[in-house]
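Minutes, project check-in
Item: structure for the 272-residue chain
Input as provided by the requester:
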Amino acid sequence: MTVSPRELADLALATAREAAELVRERARGEVTVAATKSSDIDVVTEADRASEALIRARISEARPGDGFMGEEGSDVASTTGVRWVIDPIDGTVNFLYGIPQYAVSIAAEVDGVVVAGVVLDVQSGVEYVGRLADGDSPASATRDGRPITVRGPAPMSERLFATGFSYDRRVRVLQAEAVTRLLPHVRDIRRLGSCALDLCLVADGRMDAYVEEGVNFWDHAAAGMIARLAGARTLVLAGAGGLDLLVCAPEHSFDEVLEAVRSAGFSPDSGE
């Protein structure tokens, strides 16, 4: 049976809306840290766990046998060829502090290829949706149902970059040094706290590039596809600290951005 990207995107969106409402409800109460993960600053809240449990339950009800990869739960093998990649709250530290920049991210893979994805900005309600071509319907990337595209070409000095920092303190030092070297050559650098939303800003033409070491697949599975469908390119390579480094920029200027990132020292390959 052929799996429809449109149907998977519709299921992801309906599920993300329900999960976002749960997270909003939790945000109205007292938010507490349930546990730490890779370090004492890498936190998980009860809302993260509740959101992921809801997402898995709703999708399993609709599509028994599908697999799961999630930030807070164990991996589940697929018997259908479909696997869901979930970040129940991307931007947990923002959520913990009441900063309205965090999202629910759900991607659907078919035989290892992401074919549909949703990133829902919890507090604003903005919905980013991407899906591959489906029958006579072409591939699309949208924001609240309207097509989006990356920003046009601009000099490096007029490009706005987004970045983030690893939970590993050793890596953070290297990232800070690289940011210091990059900053004089670009318009400015933003650290907003959600990989998924940062990538969607590139897709939507409101950010010119994104670079961060220490990201996981669930952070960018959905948003990376949305960005690519909107005209961006993504690349995962080795970072200066030995973790995965994600670079995203419009296709028309990707090579220039990658060279700037390497020259600044985000990657052990300086490009010099």
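Outcome recorded: The CA atoms of residues 67 and 78 lie 4 Å apart.
No further action items on this chain.
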